[in-house]
What does this fold into?
Amino acid sequence: MLGKSVIRAITAPTDGSFNLCDHDPAWRDTQDLRALSEKQLKKRAKVYLERGHKSLTECQEKLYADNRYSLLVIFQAMDAAGKDTTIKHVMSGINPQGCQVTSFKHPSATELDHTFLWRYSQALPRRGMIGIFNRSYYEEVLVVRVHRELVAAQRIPGKNGGAGFWKSRFRDINAFERHLTQNGTVILKFFLNLSKEEQRQRFIERLTNKDKLWKYDPSDLRDRSHWDSYQHAYQETIAHTSSPWAPWHIIPADNKWVMRALVSGVISDTIGALDIDFPKLPKHRVSEIKVALKSLRSE
Ligand code: ATP
Ligand code: MG
It folds into this structure.
């Protein structure tokens, strides 16, 4: 379980006072973690992840059997923050039948013919299931805000793109999430907070390592050139949409192992705290089982 001080440090306040500058992308928790070498840190994080996998596997079975809640896990980040590998590491070992990952790219023509929450609603997890959004409806107030021409492509009547427009999107998102949580969907939102310098290093690595070259996308550099606009959009988004029913978690992303261990900790603590259990069998089913057992044993 994550300590209270860690949870406090990585959970965005829900009263609008969030300030991204308070969150260090290279944050390493306590003094003892800071003293560890990279190798020792990785070792410790792996033990932690292992523990997280065990408890997640157990909880996932209960979530499925209980069949009342669903879990929606949202990942948002700048490019190269490690969304894909975090999903891979944190969710490894869980039953793929109970989990679905959806990655959201540029919307299609059909998606643009609908309102901005439509395509995300289609991918929501059913009861008993875990749904992971690799990018999400938050792109509608992030990339769409930074690249204003994307608003025009949505063909919404009226004046669009001003301060009031984004505030009304935040209100819609808060209401959407309120609706979901009131009906059994638990929402976990992670912003993987990468520094500009660490992103630079990772891009250089991609461009100089032949096994990573395929990951390079020219739009990565285009978006990097809008770094400050993105930071501003994240600041505004998190301040307006960190709510008591769906708070944001700001995960330091400069160290991949710290990041993965923290995400795993938040997910397993959250499912572990739900009032879920394997359903109790009604009396008539208990006697049915006794009869079945008797018949099998006497074959
Ligand atoms: P990778 O780690 O592989 O780069 P990625 O999530 O960046 O993963 P890409 O295929 O590179 O995936 O990029 C998806 C692109 O789609 C991103 O640039 C993202 O901003 C964009 N996108 C996502 N949702 C929307 C949206 N609603 N409107 C416009 N663009 C969007
Ligand atoms: Mg990309």
Remarks:
- Residues 79, 84, 103-107, 134-135, 139-140, 143-144, 150, 217, 219 surround adenosine-5'-triphosphate (ligand 1) (CB under 6 Å).
- The chain has one domain: 4-297.
